[in-house]
Amino acid sequence: MGSIAVETRSLVDIASRISSNTALLNKHLASKVLQTPTFDKDAEEDFHSLTDAPKIEAAREALLEDTNRLHDLVLGPANVLRRICWGSMNTSVLRAIYHFKIHEAIPLSGGSTYSEIATKVGLPEHRVKSIIRQAALDHVFAEDSPNHVVHTAASAILIRNKAMLDWVGHFTEEALPTSANLVDAMERYPGSEEPGESAFALAFNTQSIFKFFDENNDRQARFFGAMAGVGKSPGLSVQHILKGYGWVQLGKALVVDVGGSSGFVSTALANAYPDLEFEVQDLQHTIEKGAQDLAPELRSRVKFMAHDFFKPQPTTGDIYLMRHICHDWSSKYSAKILRAIVPAMKPSSRILMIESVMQAPGTLSQLQERTMSQERSREDWEDLVFQTDPKLEIKSIHRPAGSWDSMIEVGFKS
Ligand SMILES: C[S@@+](CC[C@H](N)C(=O)[O-])C[C@H]1O[C@@H](n2cnc3c(N)ncnc32)[C@H](O)[C@@H]1O
């Protein structure tokens, strides 16, 4: 059933499907001698990857959707609205934990009392207690005895995983104020395609998100860390890019990684495909970091170049790789970025965009749909390519199994 379709099953029917899918999942974990999910601080950070077991993955997705439905049915409609509104409070609580480094004040083994934590972070004990107790309702921290706090699996990630900590920082300190400005931006600039009139621009009084990061190096470093963390989630893994395109068939070829950030996609491809050469293009600050960290054995095949992607493309390449570029820009600016590449293309060159392609509601899992509601559909991508240059066409769209992104291949019309 589509995830936004009206629910017609009884509570017992939903619970019964939950029960059978739980049994299926449990049997799979047991057969692979995998750890049963737990909130313990030493648990695996992510649910075990089920890419090689699509039926079990489907059971897991159905479980997530059904438990959510059952929860909301039992909650009742008025409380569903309250739950949604309370969501922003929970994000603010997480922001307080991040900002005051509450996670760092609690040792991974042993834990701490509220009074010890309050002294370490310099806040009143009652404030610390209310923040932690609110977070604990979401399994971030727990009390193992009255007034004594220990880490859980989720809170331990804030200590052990810097990329995830950066993601939490970016989300709570940049995405949260941005979302609070969404309606203001819609009121003041309805239908605007200008980055300077976006909710982000209003929240941070800037001309664009990338200008803002370029001028705020600490926040930029955190954003890069956060993006690297995002790349580690199974649906966005670089492995899908390595396996999802005919890289070998290209033979000796030059890949231009437009807006390639630190070059992590290009370096993964360079390691896997020794015939390929790469030019990673991004803003000056960004490529400096990537060039510094590049492994010496890749230096002859992976080059870095400062290039503003709104300016004419200086390099003739076989592939112009654009991962997660157009999804940050309105169609007007996405077309400008693409148009700047066209004069440099050979007849055989391809632009390879790696982006989400929005599906009809209910086609994807709810988890995936939640992250994609603002993305482009297949028709939107076709319009964008046509708007860029009528000589171009989409040659193919392929979504590798388990990938949240598709490989959108664009070339000159044949
Ligand atoms: C969402 S990130 C995607 C990075 C990378 N391709 C990936 O897959 O994670 C967008 C990238 O575009 C770069 N960028 C933004 N404005 C740019 C511009 N005018 N010229 C070149 N790169 C730009 C940013 O620095 C950032 O690295």
TrEMBL record:
Entries under Gene3D superfamilies matching the protein: Vaccinia Virus protein VP39, Winged helix-like DNA-binding domain superfamily/Winged helix DNA-binding domain
InterPro entries: COMT-like, COMT_C, SAM-dependent_MTases_sf, WH-like_DNA-bd_sf, WH_DNA-bd_sf
Keyword terms, alphabetized: Methyltransferase, S-adenosyl-L-methionine, Transferase
GO biological process: methylation
Molecular function per GO: O-methyltransferase activity
Organism domain of life: Eukaryota
Domain O-methyltransferase C-terminal: 198-366
Record's protein name: O-methyltransferase bik3
The species this protein was found in: Lachnellula suecica
Lineage: Eukaryota, Fungi, Dikarya, Ascomycota, Pezizomycotina
